[in-house]
């Protein structure tokens, strides 16, 4: 065959493409279990971050996750996941959240204590600006500002919010400086993601009140 002919070039290119495609498919299939395992481990670490458990390697994170996470549930309507956890004898619920930032999707996990307050928080992003919007993921200090904030009012309405100027320290968190749109995305994500837990909020608060020892001590 004439190696300078068009037919030779076309056949050679087609064979080369088939071989490369086969190799890529083989590598992808061979590595996929490892990739899936890494993704699953990353999710577990994010959930642990929201529970204020950080700086663990892979095996430590796997063991800690198995220790504290007692049940995983998924909402059939919207796919939102919740994780029932127990830490130091306390029942903590972690809620998965998804929203939109300035340049792409954002996500997070919010840990809720028995009184309807934030136990811990972790946020992630797909492509926010480094040093600005990316701070929702990179700044542990900013995530820790959510700890102790009240999430719902007495009627089950979401009152937790991210704002430019904090007027209610019990429910509001300062937005990330220079990243207003990303901060607004986090605020909307919290509002939307926590709406479905109004019954949970009111029920937990009523349960807390019922279990509170209100007996008055009378001096004899």
- Helix percent reads 40-55%
Question: Count of helices?
Answer: 6
Structural class: alpha+beta
Count all strands and give the number: 7
Percent of residues in beta strands: 15-25%
Low-confidence stretches: 205-220
- Biggest pleated-sheet summary: 5 strands, antiparallel
Give the overall shape, derived from the CA principal axes. Answer: elongated
Order of strands in the sheet with most strands? 1-2-3-4-5
* Nearest-integer average pLDDT: 84
Instruction: Give, in order, the helices and strands.
Output: HHEEEEEHHEEHH
Terminal CA distance reads 113 Å
> Any idea what the radius of gyration is?
24 Å
The gist of it:
This protein is an alpha+beta fold and 220 residues long.
Describe this structure in words.
There is one protein chain. α1 crosses α2 (58-68). The protein has helices at 6-50, 58-68, 135-138, 140-144, 180-194, 198-211, and strands at 69-74, 81-87, 90-100, 105-112, 118-125, 161-163, 172-174. It starts with 5 loop residues before the first helix and ends in a 9-residue tail after the last helix. The chain has 6 helices and 7 strands; from the N terminus they run ααβββββααββαα. The strands form 2 sheets. The chain has a 5-stranded antiparallel beta sheet with strand order 1-2-3-4-5. A two-stranded parallel ribbon has the order 6-7. It is 43% helix and 21% strand. The protein is an alpha+beta fold.
């Amino acid at each position: 065959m004439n190696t300078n002919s068009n037919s030779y070039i076309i056949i050679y290119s087609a064979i080369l493409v088939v071989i490369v495609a086969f190799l890529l498919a083989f590598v992808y299939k061979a590595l996929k279990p490892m990739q899936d395992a890494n993704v699953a481990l990353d999710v577990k670490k994010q959930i642990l971050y929201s529970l204020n458990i950080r700086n663990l390697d892979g095996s430590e994170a796997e063991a800690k996750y198995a220790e504290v996470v007692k049940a995983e549930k998924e909402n059939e309507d919207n796919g939102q996941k919740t994780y029932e956890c127990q830490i130091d004898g306390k029942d903590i619920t972690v809620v998965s959240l998804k929203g939109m930032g300035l340049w792409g999707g954002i996500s997070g996990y919010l840990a809720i204590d028995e009184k309807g307050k934030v136990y811990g928080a972790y946020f992630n992003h797909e492509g926010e600006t480094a040093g600005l919007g990316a701070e929702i993921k990179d700044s542990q200090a900013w995530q820790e500002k959510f700890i102790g904030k009240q999430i719902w009012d007495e009627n089950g309405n979401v009152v937790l919010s991210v704002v430019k100027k904090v007027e209610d320290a019990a429910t509001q968190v300062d937005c990330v400086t220079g990243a207003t749109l990303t901060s607004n995305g986090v605020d909307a994500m919290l509002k939307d993601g926590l709406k479905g837990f109004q019954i949970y909020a009111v029920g937990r608060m009523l349960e807390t009140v019922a279990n509170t020892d209100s007996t008055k001590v009378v001096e004899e």
